[in-house]
Design goal:
The protein is α+β, with helices and mostly antiparallel strands. The chain contains 19 helices and 28 strands.
């Protein structure tokens, strides 16, 4: 099965062998993770798609791959139209597509360890309208034909020191116990890998770019915890760190343990715990409480140690990025550089800090038309030369023990066109509108998303992704529950109230298919705001910018900026020079000073 067409044919043959007429293949794992280990990359293996979000549905006579607006171009480049129909989401769902194409009597399979109960309920109802049936499988048929499927990582757990975490695991578990008591619950099942890592102050290496370990945890009403993890991942340092209040079990024992809660009230997150977990608890006689994982919000509200750690990580990361941007301006116009060589150079600058543990995601190194794919991933096959007349977009981040970074900058290779400068400046205006926003405490991100889009809307333009996502503390580069996004963009609207201590990205963009892409991304900290003359009883919030790197002045049309916007940019660049300049030497420092001078 050297081709993806052969793999699709093999899957259909396997489905016929086990009595199924179709099957759904999501890009996730048993923990509903965004980024997954190599062993769980079933969608990529089957279709060739390299994005981080998508689903495939396979029937006997047709197949479809479902992706959102971030991957409109990428999916067409990587997945054969001869085998797959391209279906956009959220405009159409897997359930509605199956309902439209399944016929009466058909049995459509799904892996209950890879879908939520809500998805199962909705999809089963849609198929029932066609007299078709959604059928759980005991063994995933993709795994049956993926003969060289990688094994799950066996990397060891590591301790995340309290000095970086800001709070002990015991304190965090006591808080979870209080949450359970308020709900008269006996236990909560934690399935999200970053929730487990945060609650126990541990980290791992089981998922590329995300320092988590494959595990499950069940926290009891007294704060004691059962951790299900491969025994080989645990050494004496981890045992001593966890203490007697955390009982260790083999990860394979987790499913069976769910049957031991008969008569107990057990909380599980309907968005993060898969259908198989809800089914096992219910069948074992537990009263299942469908409640959001209590770690989700606690993790999003960064404590002072996490904020201070991120500030330190941002300085070293910003210095590395600044050195790289100077390298791009100096070397790329000479020719001979490619998307891969640029990504490698940026990685080298970060590694020279001596603190980099990993990148926080696959670097988006995109020149020319590739920049128009917001989540483009360069490969040996797609690697393009960086040429004069193009815009080069670099979206990247680092994992450091004290913080996770994520930043995007765009550099012109040679002189940019007037259109490029217009579009870049409109994106910058939207970026400034978010950075300077002041809003009531508890405002959802959906209400401020339009701030970033107005300058583009005024020119009849827009971008097809959210404006901002949460970010972890040496954890996931994409972290909820907070977002800045409108309902019709990937992930839907963010109705989560914004609170002081939350970190978010600020990343409006513009993408011209076939030509270029633009995105300006900094990270923000939500902080209390004082408004002179304002209602003293109304708490207000604002954003503090945490990312320090120059924004390319040659791409800015100053005539499009208001005096207030120009003032913000000059203040930001002054802060960049003051913060990053002392970390740089010689020509790098001089170059930064020139880039951070006030606009003419």
């Amino acid at each position: 099965m050297t081709t993806h067409s052969a793999r699709l044919a093999a899957l259909r043959a396997e489905l016929a062998r086990i009595g199924l007429d179709g099957f759904v293949v999501p890009l996730t794992d048993e923990h509903m993770s965004e980024y997954v280990g190599a062993y769980a990359q079933r969608l990529g293996w089957l279709t060739g798609f390299g994005g981080s979000a998508g689903t495939a549905a396979v029937l006997g006579d047709r197949a479809a791959i479902f992706t959102d607006g971030r991957y409109t171009l990428q999916v067409r480049e990587q997945v054969s139209a001869d085998d797959w129909a391209y279906v956009p989401v959220p405009q159409e769902s897997v359930a509605s597509w199956l309902a439209a194409h399944a016929v009466a009597g058909q049995r459509i399979g799904y892996d209950p360890w890879l879908h939520t109960s809500g998805w199962v309920k909705d999809t089963a109802a849609a198929l029932a309208d066609r007299d078709a049936t959604l059928v759980p499988v005991a063994a995933n048929p993709v795994d049956a034909i993926w003969t060289d499927r990688p094994a799950p990582s066996d990397a060891p757990l590591t301790v995340h020191d309290d000095t970086h975490a800001g709070r002990s695991s015991a304190a965090k578990r006591a808080e979870i116990a209080d949450w359970l008591a308020e709900r008269q619950a006996d236990a909560v099942v934690l399935t999200a890998l970053d929730s487990i890592a945060w609650a126990l102050n541990v980290r791992g290496l089981d998922v590329a770019h995300t320092p988590v370990a494959l595990s499950y945890a069940i926290v009891g009403s007294d704060g004691t915890t059962d951790l299900f993890v491969a025994p080989g991942k645990v050494d004496d340092a981890i045992r001593q760190h966890l203490g007697n209040a955390v009982r260790l079990h083999d990860r394979h024992a987790f499913a069976g343990a769910l049957a031991g809660y008969a008569g107990k009230r057990v909380a599980a997150d309907p968005e993060r715990a898969v259908a198989a977990i809800f089914d096992a608890l219910a069948q074992g006689g537990a009263k299942v409480l469908p409640l959001r994982d209590p770690v989700v919000l606690a993790k999003a509200l960064k404590n002072p140690a996490e904020v201070d750690g991120h500030r330190a990580a941002s300085v070293r990361d910003g210095a590395a990025l600044t050195r790289f941007l100077r390298w791009v301006e100096t070397e790329c116009p000479k020719g001979g550089q490619t998307e891969l060589s640029a990504a490698a150079r940026l990685l080298a600058f970060r590694e020279e800090t001596g603190c980099l543990l990993d990148t926080s995601f696959d670097t988006i190194s995109a020149t020319g038309a590739h920049g128009a794919s917001p989540h483009y991933h360069v490969t040996e096959e797609s690697n393009a030369p960086i040429l004069p007349g193009q815009l080069f977009l670099i979206d990247s981040g680092g994992q450091y023990v004290d913080g996770t970074t994520d930043v995007t900058r765009v550099m012109p290779i040679g002189a940019p066109t007037a259109e490029m400068r217009d579009r870049f400046t409109r994106v910058l205006k939207g970026h400034i509108a978010i950075a300077t926003a002041i809003f009531p405490d508890g405002t959802p991100g959906a209400q401020i998303d339009g701030f970033a889009r107005r300058p583009l809307w005024e020119a009849g333009l827009d971008f097809a992704h959210g404006t901002g996502h949460g970010i972890g503390s040496y954890l996931s580069v994409h972290e909820g529950p907070q977002r800045i996004a409108a309902p019709n963009y990937p992930g839907g609207a963010s109705l989560e109230p914004l609170r002081a201590g939350m970190m978010l990205s600020n990343e409006p963009g513009y993408y011209k298919a076939g030509e270029y892409g633009i995105r300006i991304e900094n990270l923000l900290l939500t902080v209390p705001a004082t408004i002179p003359g304002g209602d003293p009883d109304r708490a207000m919030l604002a954003f503090e910018t945490l990312t320090f790197a120059p924004i390319e002045r040659d791409l800015i049309d100053p005539d499009l900026l208001t005096p207030a916007e120009r003032a913000w940019l000059d203040r930001y660049h002054a802060a960049v020079a003051a913060t990053i300049g002392p970390v740089l030497d010689g020509d790098d420092r001089a170059w930064l000073a020139s880039k951070c001078a006030p606009l003419d």
